[in-house]
Amino acid sequence: MFDVNANATQRPVSVPKPVDRNHAWQFEPCGECCVILVFDTVFSIERNRQAAAAANALRHLKRQGLLPGITDVVAAMVTVGVHYSPMAFAAQYPHTSPFQAVCELLSASLNQPVAGTTAPAKRVEIPVCYEAEYAPDLEQVADACSLSVKQLIDAHTAHWLDVLMMGFAPGHPYIGLHSEALAVPRRSVPRTQVRKGSIGIANQQSVIYPADLPGGWNLVGLTPLNLFSPNDDVPCLLKGGDQVRFTAISRREFDVLAQGEAL
């Protein structure tokens, strides 16, 4: 097994630390092949957006071939995991440890503007049919929130929301934050199968199931959109840092859009 500290005695290099209060992250090692950029230890929209922006910038640089040795970039709620090849970094930077070299590369990359990553967040409208046959938990959620079904739908479609992260399954977004009125917990007993396209809600967030999957979120609607197409150049419809707004559609509109998605 490769020792990430094997070369550290040749030229000690301090791991980069925040230089002032404007420095957004700290580094934490995660095994011998990954470093975590930690933007906070508790969730906030501000820190989530910083993490998403950093991840998108690093992915952009990786596509440009400017991060040799970096193998993957994975954003979470307030952290970013950067996977790397220790052997590649040991070859490039023989006088320091791969972990330290990765930290220095990431600091240099993120402490300067990254061309092509300053565009406004991509906005995507997600059509949702809230008819009862597509929303088995809608009335129960409305009751739990002390709202009518119409009020719940109005609240769910009221604002543009952030794609907080992708996870659980390919193409599966976590979206929020909704108003505090929609702070219902997840189901006590998860379903063994949830239909592809189902919209789940819990803890002021929504998710969209990209395939038939098990899940414990409260199901309040169904979208005809396809969120994950593995054969496409860009397989996921959404990514962290995008923005989403749910829009209510009728059953007839759902059928028309579903037919188009199937073509």
TrEMBL record:
<dbReference type="InterPro" id="IPR010016">
    <property type="entry name" value="PxpB"/>
</dbReference>
<dbReference type="Pfam" id="PF02682">
    <property type="entry name" value="CT_C_D"/>
</dbReference>
<protein>
    <submittedName>
        <fullName>5-oxoprolinase subunit PxpB</fullName>
        <ecNumber>3.5.2.9</ecNumber>
    </submittedName>
</protein>
<feature type="domain" description="Carboxyltransferase">
    <location>
        <begin position="25"/>
        <end position="238"/>
    </location>
</feature>
<dbReference type="GO" id="GO:0017168">
    <property type="term" value="F:5-oxoprolinase (ATP-hydrolyzing) activity"/>
</dbReference>
<keyword id="KW-0378">Hydrolase</keyword>
<keyword id="KW-0067">ATP-binding</keyword>
<keyword id="KW-0547">Nucleotide-binding</keyword>
<dbReference type="InterPro" id="IPR029000">
    <property type="entry name" value="Cyclophilin-like_dom_sf"/>
</dbReference>
<dbReference type="InterPro" id="IPR003833">
    <property type="entry name" value="CT_C_D"/>
</dbReference>
